[in-house]
Every structure is written in structure tokens, then in C-alpha cells.
Amino acid sequence: MLNSQKIGNELYQNLGKLFYAVAMADNAIRPVEVQRLKEAINDKWLDVDEVEDEFGVDAAYQIEIVFDWLQDEERDGQIYFDEFKEFFEEHKERISPKMITLIWQTAEAIAASFAGKNKSELIILAKLKLFLKSIQ
Predict the structure, then answer these.
(1) Closest by alpha carbon to 122, among 112, 136, 113, 134?
(2) How many Cβ atoms from other residues are within 10 Å of residue 77's Cβ?
(3) Tens of pLDDT along 98-125?
């Protein structure tokens, strides 16, 4: 696999970590949050670029794969939020303005999907917004 393909796959894997952290902000992931993520992947993320995984499948599905795997782990989302930030800081040249917009829209949709945004979700969204502004 080419290095740029590898980084592209890791980028999507780290988005899965971020979206898990957003959904897990209130210590519970609800089915509607998972559904919002899947809708965002199918409606928006598949058209972002041409990056594919080693099986020739659109790398955007790595978001869902990692999210599902992390659900089984049931760990604190802050760990994965920090991993997302670290990766994106190292590779910010690969992050387009369109991608930043999609990251924000997807995180906000997940947070708002179950009874609106609660305090925990508002806090992680505020951290995300500050971070996204810092890498632009």
C-alpha cells in the first residue's frame, strides 16, 4: 500500500475515534447515534476522496469499522479524542476545508441525535471546534 493510501486510511480510522468520543461523551452510545454516523458516512463521507483500503473498498468505511470496534471496547472517549487530535495535528496538510466542515457536521449530528445536546456533548463539541480552528 502506498504511504499516502496508508495515511488516508489512518485519517479515516482517526475520524472513527473522534466520532466515538463524541457519542461516548455522556458515557452511553445509543442506536440513534450509530444511525446518524452511518447516514453521514453514506451521504457525505464516501464522496470526499478516492482513498481505498487494502481490499479496494472506500476508506470512509474505516470510520464505521473503528467506531464499531471501539463500541465493543467501551472505553472512555477522551482517550480517542486525544488520539484523533494528535494524528490530525501531524497531518493537517491533508485536511481540506471541506473535510473540516464535514467533521463538524458529523460530530454535531451525532451529538444532537438523542434528545438534543447535553452538557458533556457540548463540552466535547466546544473542544472540537477550537481544535478545528487551530488546524486551519
Answers:
(1) 112
(2) 23
(3) 999 999 999 999 999 977 788 999 999 9
Q: With the C-alpha atoms ordered 86, 91, 93, 94, is the resulting torsion angle positive or negative?
A: negative
Q: Phi then psi for 52, rounded to 5 degrees?
A: -125, 155
| Residues ≥6 apart with Cβ < 8 Å to 29 | 20, 23, 71
Alpha helices in 1-136 (DSSP H): 3-23, 31-43, 61-73, 77-90, 97-112, 119-134
What is the second-level CATH architecture of the domain 3-134?
Answer: Orthogonal Bundle (1.10)
Domain ranges of the chain: 3-134
pTM of the model: 0.93
